[in-house]
């Protein structure tokens, strides 16, 4: 027999934020069925610096196009959460490692290189309203260019 010590029959609300983070990682790994559930229509993205990529995107479709292009280039690559999610009232953050799919920078290179990064997402309601991303790919790109010279 379980005794209810708080004298309340109300159920505690379920925190949706851990699932939102899990769905965000699934979306980052190519599950586009989650787009409308995860991303607000007006989501803004602040992206890692690259040689030829955008640094800012506005709107769900622009972010989905960017995510899809990254995934399509190396569909076997996967992000694995290493730290987190760290959950605050309006922000969720976590560190991930991307493995598989070559170094992600030069299609002719077949060796895998691990890239680490951090995602920070701001929540509005129950969806992602803003995303900040950082990863080591720019540093990796600079190292590869230096080594090739």
UniProtKB/TrEMBL annotation:
Domain SnoaL-like residue range list: 26-131
One Pfam family of this chain: SnoaL_2
InterPro entries reported in the protein's UniProt record: NTF2-like_dom_sf, SnoaL-like
Protein name (Swiss-Prot/TrEMBL): Nuclear transport factor 2 family protein
Taxonomic source organism: Plantactinospora solaniradicis
């Amino acid at each position: 027999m379980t005794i209810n010590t708080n004298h309340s029959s109300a159920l505690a609300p379920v925190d949706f934020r851990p699932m939102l983070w899990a769905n965000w990682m699934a979306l980052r790994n190519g599950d586009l069925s989650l787009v409308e559930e995860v991303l607000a229509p007006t989501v803004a993205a602040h992206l890692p610096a690259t040689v030829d990529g955008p640094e800012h995107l506005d709107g769900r479709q622009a972010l989905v196009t960017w995510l899809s292009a990254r995934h399509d280039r190396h569909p076997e690559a996967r992000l694995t959460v290493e730290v987190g999610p760290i959950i605050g009232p309006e922000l969720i953050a976590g560190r991930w490692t991307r493995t598989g799919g070559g170094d992600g920078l030069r299609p002719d290179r077949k060796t895998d290189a691990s890239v680490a990064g951090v995602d920070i997402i701001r929540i509005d309601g129950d969806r992602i309203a803003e995303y900040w991303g950082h990863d080591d790919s720019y540093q990796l790109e600079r190292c590869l260019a230096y080594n090739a010279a």
